[in-house]
Amino acid sequence: MKKFLLTYLYLLFGAFLQGTSMSLFLFPHSIPSGGAAGLALLMNHWFDLPLGFSLWLANAFFLLFALKYFGSTWTFRTILSVAITSTTISILASQVPLPHVHVFIDILGGSILFGLGVGLLIRVGASSGGMVIPALMIASYKKWSLGKVMMGINLVIFLLTSFIIDYKIVVYAIICQFISANIIDFIYEYKFQKVSILSPNWRRR
Questions:
Q1: How many Å apart are CA 139 and CA 17, to the nearest integer?
Q2: 3-class secondary structure, 31
Q3: CB–CB of 128/117 below 8 Å?
Q4: Nearest of 187, 179, 124 to residue 151 by alpha carbon
Q5: Burial class of residue 187 in the structure, from the number of CB atoms within 10 Å of its CB (0-12 exposed, 13-18 middle, 19+ buried)
């Protein structure tokens, strides 16, 4: 029971950090936090689909793969983390005003919190949804660095979106991904000696 409660406590905290990074630091500058948002923009541009539906479609598609590859428990935790993140964004975006000193300071703060949040979610057997799912699948199969795989996938998508959005936003998004990917790798590879729940246990169970 203690392990169960700790798992969901860390999941809640990780999702909260992720939502905080998006709502207070990244979204005010229109910086996408990952490739799923980029895919939504591309589907909206190519197929004239609504952005909200496109984002849902992108996440639903990858969750179907996650259910087969990682199992129902991992998928449930991922859906829960997405719900907590979305709720955090909705609350903080409307209730917590934050003075923005400089865009690069916000990118740094947002990238750190985002990397910490996603890294923590992965350590407790979940993810933030979106492009983290295929990145985990590729990293697991190829034994590659998780953060670097995420960076590579998102980089391709951001470069494609540069044809339809301001190139400055694409540059900001790439900087954000570079910082957060390194933090995710650090958290994923770090050896926690006293907290057994924080181990790389996202594989199918």
A1: 24
A2: coil
A3: yes
A4: 179
A5: buried
